[in-house]
Inverse folding.
């Protein structure tokens, strides 16, 4: 969530760029679901960060 907010993106923005559902982004950010490596890569690519940044 911090990375997304730091970029000034809404969940809807991120979902559109990463090509995943907005409610899935919400569930990931709230810790309600796990996600696969391909989804991780889509999200980090959309945020223009390296995957490790999401785990800091």
């Amino acid at each position: 969530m911090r990375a997304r907010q730091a970029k000034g993106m809404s969940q809807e923005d991120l979902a559109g760029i990463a090509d995943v559902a907005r409610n899935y982004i919400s569930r990931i950010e709230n810790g309600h679901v796990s996600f696969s490596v391909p989804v991780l890569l889509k999200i980090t690519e959309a945020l223009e960060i390296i995957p490790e940044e999401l785990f800091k």
